Amino acid sequence: MTNGAQVWGPLTVATRLATQLIPDAPRTFRTSPEQLPDQAADDQDQLRKTRLFWAIYALDSYVNITTCHNGELLDRSIERLLPNRALAWETPGGPLYSRSENQSMSIDPQYVFSHHLEALDLSREIHRIYVDFSYHKSSGEADTVGDWISRVLSCSADLFDWSARLPRMLQMDAVQETAKVTPRCFSSLVMLHGYWCALVIHLHSMVICPTLPECPRLSEVRSQSHEHCTRAVEHLIGMIGRIRGTTLKQLGWPFAWSLWTALRYLLACQVHSGMQILDGWDTLLRCLQAAAKYWQIGMKYWRMLNRAMSELQQSMSSPLLGPPRFLSSVVDLRISTADLEDRFRVDPVLHQRDDVPEHSNNTDATRFGCEYPDPRAVENNLATEMSIYSTSIFQDPDTWYNMPLYATSAYQQSSQSTFDSTAAYP
User: Fold this and answer.
1) Residue 153 belongs to a domain
2) Which GO terms describe its molecular function (predicted)?
3) Is residue 165 part of a domain?
4) Taking the model in full, what pTM does it have?
């Protein structure tokens, strides 16, 4: 995935067709041949349709929270298949049929995904909270902020309760004991807990954001939210230490978003509170760069973070250079990731540089006792040294919309030189 505009249209079509997978819908799809209109749907046929619906549901949930987009699937469509969702992912003789505590860890990805869907239920609520956080940021009413904090705390309790209720074989300790997990299930477990860590950080980092209107309850919750975020980052770093290149390839772009969420939180803490970035910054950033070998969006996240960190280091060494424009946007958690991508896109049709005024000159600056360099030199330096996206390894800036949604062999070959340093990760 590259940006929201490329996936919103196809996703809308997919979600609308997904409603026809519901058994009692006015129109339904069938996958078995030569089925008579008055013949009951075959069990296997309905099972395939149900699983397809929840796969589209997962994609819709991923895209919503990643690109800050409103969900396409309506609640009433989801609720019609929700009661029987667990049954759709059962396998004969699998863990769902036997819940003995002494059972060995003979799980499969299908079983892990059935629990991952429950985390996606919570992600949709977190996304609604974030939308309110973004669009109602200017409200100064203490009652409004208090109600919003109540929603955050309630959702946080559900997140931790979901993690505590996971079967023993799916707990966080299972990721640490890699010898007891089959290789084909290890990536599913990493994705399950990595995404949960990102949801915790995404939810509680809103509370830490200093732009929220102050109220007594907010100050009480902030320290606890910071502890939750820090612990989630530490869990994520611990999992990364056990990931190998073959596993990273199987995680998908939502895991790249999880890394981005953790890294953006660390950067915001450094800027807002002066907290030194944890030693795991390099570990997370290196893993994100390695993930970019397989998922385009990972390289975009990596470039934005490097740009922001470069501005932070420059501002610390030379305070007179002025406020870093890109860094201030990255650490303002009210600005969604999709807006960050669009705001700093190199496409000249969608983006016009406003770093330097068009008609400014040195004469205007010297009237106020300041001495600035030539604006054209500044713009050239920004374009060459601080560009977010290097179009030389992809395509021309005016054809960004032709870039593939997902990693392909052609993409990997064309950008192989960029990822030579990450080929042997970790």
Assistant:
1) yes
2) DNA-binding transcription factor activity, RNA polymerase II-specific; metal ion binding
3) yes
4) 0.73
